[in-house]
Specification:
It is built from 17 helices and 9 strands. The protein is an alpha/beta fold.
């Protein structure tokens, strides 16, 4: 893929927008519009998860995705929509260079300084313990650590360890943003260890169309012209589903400045002039016939070299009364020199010597006694059977009166209001004790990613509208946490 430098910098003042404006009559740059927030590609679900777990969760949060996937845009929308009930603080990159720099940044948020003889590590732990008091006053703190994968691993792990050592249901929630490398930096395998991962995947072809269409309409353009099937496929191929690349390559595609196909200029197929075609064909036929004759010649020479020479035969003819057939031929091997015929006399008959007497047979040796059979080994005792593992103890709720079995909830028909969720039972119990005046708050135990998942919920309503009306009667602190209205059977 090759795009001009001007197309890659289309958002600058001297970029491609004036040409788009002239060609398509656009009133504004559609790729420079941050609103409306794009809810597809699981972005809305990711935003709701962040809102819920930042307010009522007891987990550190990992927001991961490829560069340009919209992580910073999602955090900006989280701050915009939840700043009235959550206290957001963004840690700059300079605060992530060393434990001392991190301690100074956190104590600056708390408007405190380092105590005498207090190290940087103790100060970081002390900040998270101090942040618990803010949640008890009705406003929980959230620490946003963007590009956390570029920070030293020891700093990221120090933040996570300090959060885990505090009361996680009330301490400041760290939200780490970066690539999937964060999982390796923290020594995790995804969800687990007090951490919840939210991953942003690349956009599909249809999701790119959903993202661009409302912005084109707001800019006064024609979506049918700018989002034809060919252009949409090219935008998806060049952007690879990334928001940042989408903003760079789309203007170049709309102005037909990109190279088609695989990114190489198309080449015209070679065409031979008509007056040269017949001579070329004759040369091809001549070369083929020469090759065929050459192959036949090579085969003939190979057969001649492989055939053996005939065996030389010496013919001997004997004429006489004892050999009436003069045509008999005896094949003999040809000697190196012709030897004269010799007549051998028969040797005289010698007397046969008398046979010598046979020696007397030696006496047979006495047979050795057979060895006594060895006694059979005693059978080994059978191993004792291993004791069966004891069954794991069943879960016993700390507050049986407020606990409901998960299967019973799923069997109900109706709606409820989820108030809180986390890996620890105490997180839900703290909420129930804090709002003991509300008698209908219950909790249950489920399993999520192989770990316990405790959910606190309020009421059993016949419809969503009835549940929404019940939310209005809750205390303001609970309403500000954006409770989740959901069906009971979906637990």
């Amino acid at each position: 893929m090759t795009v001009t430098d001007q197309g890659l910098n289309s958002l600058d003042g001297g970029g491609l927008f004036p040409r788009l404006q002239e060609r398509y009559g656009l009133r504004a740059n559609p790729l420079d519009m941050e609103t409306p927030f794009f809810p597809d590609a699981s972005r809305h679900h990711a935003l709701e998860t962040l809102r819920h777990l930042c307010g009522f969760g007891d987990l550190a949060l990992l927001l991961t995705g490829d560069p340009g996937s919209g992580k910073s845009r999602l955090l900006a929308e989280l701050v915009r929509s939840e700043s009235s009930r959550l206290d957001f603080h963004r840690l700059p990159a300079a605060a992530l260079t060393s434990p001392q720099a991190l301690a100074r940044a956190l104590l600056g948020i708390a408007h405190k300084g380092l105590k005498p003889n207090e190290g940087a590590r103790e100060s970081v732990y002390g900040f998270f313990r101090w942040s618990e008091s803010r949640a008890r006053k009705g406003q929980r703190m959230v620490l946003l650590i963007d590009d956390a994968d570029r920070a030293p691993a020891e700093i990221v792990r120090l933040l996570l360890a300090a959060f885990g050592a505090a009361d996680r249901s009330a301490a400041a929630v760290p939200v780490f943003s970066g690539s999937a490398q964060l999982i390796e930096m923290l020594g995790l395998s995804g969800d687990g260890g007090g951490v919840h991962q939210i991953h942003l995947r690349p956009l599909t072809r249809e999701e790119i169309a959903s993202y661009l269409e409302p912005r084109i309409h707001r800019a006064g353009g024609d979506a049918k012209t700018l989002l034809t099937s060919a252009r949409l496929s090219q935008i998806h191929s060049l952007s690879q589903g990334s928001f940042s690349r989408l903003k760079r390559v789309t203007p170049a595609v709309w102005l037909d400045m990109t190279l088609s196909g695989s990114g190489r200029r198309g080449r015209r197929p070679f065409s031979m002039p008509l007056n040269l075609r017949w001579p070329a064909l004759a040369l091809v036929l001549l070369a083929g016939s020469w090759w065929l004759v050459s192959q036949q010649y090579d085969d003939t020479v190979a057969r001649e070299q492989a055939s053996p020479e005939p065996e030389k035969v010496r013919k001997s003819i004997t004429i006489g009364p004892d050999n009436p057939d003069p045509q008999r031929i005896e094949p003999v091997s040809e000697p190196s020199e012709i030897e004269p015929e010799l007549t051998m006399e028969e040797p005289p008959v010698q007397p046969v010597p008398e046979p010598e007497p046979e020696p007397e047979p030696e006496p047979e040796p006495e047979p050795e006694p057979e060895p006594e059979p060895e006694p059979e080994p005693e059978p080994e005792p059978e191993p004792e059977p291993e004791p069966e593992p004891e069954p794991e103890p069943e879960f016993s709720p700390a507050k049986p009166d407020d606990f409901v079995v998960l299967g019973e909830i799923r069997a109900r028909e109706g709606w409820t209001v989820q108030l809180i969720a986390g890996n620890r039972e105490q997180t839900v119990l703290n909420l129930i004790e804090r709002y003991s005046s509300i008698s209908d708050i219950r909790y249950t135990r489920a399993e999520r990613q192989g770990q316990d998942w405790f959910v606190g919920f309020y009421g059993n309503f016949a419809s969503r509208e009835e549940a929404q009306a019940a939310v209005e009667s809750l205390p303001r602190a609970l309403r500000d946490q954006s409770p989740w209205i959901r069906q009971m059977r979906d637990f």
